[in-house]
Design brief:
The chain has 70 residues and is an alpha+beta fold. It has 2 helices and 3 strands. The protein has a 3-stranded antiparallel beta sheet, with helices on one face. The structure holds zinc ion. The site of zinc ion (ZN) has 8 residues, from loops.
Length: 70
């Protein structure tokens, strides 16, 4: 996996949080009948401030995070 660059705002270490594809709970699907199944997401979060980027896949989230550090 591509290395995560430090946070562009505070320079702290970033972490990746991967949410695998899943169905939403029975309760939530009753509230929102049109809600599609979650296809999985990934978040890169700073450990020092509230900076965060999201992507459909870990690779996309990391690419987006690293792009912002340029
Ligand atoms: Zn930060």
């Amino acid at each position: 996996m591509t290395e995560l660059k430090p946070c562009p705002f505070c320079g702290a270490k970033a972490l990746i949080d991967i949410i695998p594809a899943h169905r939403h709970s029975e309760w939530l699907r009753k509230q929102i009948p049109d809600l599609p199944d979650c296809e999985g997401e990934a978040f890169v979060e700073c450990t020092g401030c509230t900076a965060m980027v999201a992507g459909d896949t870990p690779e996309k989230a990391i690419a987006e995070w690293n792009r912002r550090t340029q």
